[in-house]
Amino acid sequence: MAQAAPRLRIRSTSYVVIPARLESTRLPRKLLLNETGKPLVQHTYESASQAEKPSGMCIAADHEDMAAAVRAFGGEVKMTSPACASGTDRVAEIAAKLPEVDIFVNVQGDEPELRGTTIDRVVELLEENPDMVMSTLATPIRRRDVLLDPSCVKVVFDKRGRALYFSRSPIPHARTWTDDLLTAEPANFHLHIGLYAYRRDFLLGLSTIERSRLEKLESLEQLRVLENGHSIGVGVVDEPTIGIDTPEDYRAFVSRMRAR
């Protein structure tokens, strides 16, 4: 039997952008919370800086309070328009000013425990697959409450690691349920991790693509990409990152930091 052709690896430059909006709904000004002695956004910045592939990194701020906090700990900050509708738009605003960069990584500012190797993986997916315009990550779901929770986005992908669909509903839907479906290997269900890498040209054009029907129904921006026929690569990692969305999330994070 003939051997499969090796994956093509393309030399590229990559750059991390952390969109940092000052206001947040469920946890006001969460990125500036500092019960650990550091603002939350600093924890995210320091974790992301452990990645080896990116050639640089910045925080994309929408308010001078955020920018001042970043400068205080020595981080790189770039101001973006308060009118940006999403973090993706904020990353695209930075990308427009950096024509020498091939791949941009969108790291959520409320992901303080994100591993550098995770960022490297999402960049590698685009380096190894020139037909993909975006890449993201997923992790196996082993708990039924997570599978059923609409705030936990699920993803299914094909044998080549291309996303087939993202949904707030349990996908795939088991016609007959047994608990061992959650422990099967390979995993039957995957939780989407909201970390994205984009090719620069595609990112700059993404905001010009009209919001799609499925995107509006599920309130998931990545469905616009799939509905328009583009490929999103999905890499599987062992552990999910833990985002900070609520006061309870932040208290748990503070407890973990104090226990280290």
Summarize the structure.
By secondary structure, the protein is α/β, with parallel strands linked by helices. The protein contains nine helices and nine strands.
What does the average pLDDT come to? 93
Low-confidence stretches: 1-5
> How many individual β-strands?
9
The CATH first-level class of the largest domain comes to Alpha Beta
**Widest beta sheet: strand line-up:** 3-2-1-4-8-5-9
Explained architecture:
- It is globular, with a radius of gyration of 18 Å.
- The protein has a 7-stranded mixed sheet, with helices on both faces. Strands 6-7 form a two-stranded antiparallel sheet.
- It has 2 domains: 12-111, Spore Coat Polysaccharide Biosynthesis Protein SpsA, Chain A (Alpha-Beta Complex); 115-240, Alpha-Beta Complex (Spore Coat Polysaccharide Biosynthesis Protein SpsA, Chain A), CATH 3.90.550.
- Residues 1-5 have low confidence and may be disordered.
- It has helices at 40-48, 64-72, 87-95, 116-128, 144-148, 200-206, 213-218, 222-227, 247-259; strands spanning 14-20, 56-61, 77-79, 103-106, 134-140, 154-157, 163-167, 190-199, 232-236.
- It is built from 9 helices and 9 strands.
- It is α/β, with parallel strands linked by helices and 260 residues long.
- 30% of the residues lie in helices and 20% in strands.
- Helix 2 (64-72) links the parallel strand 2 and strand 3.
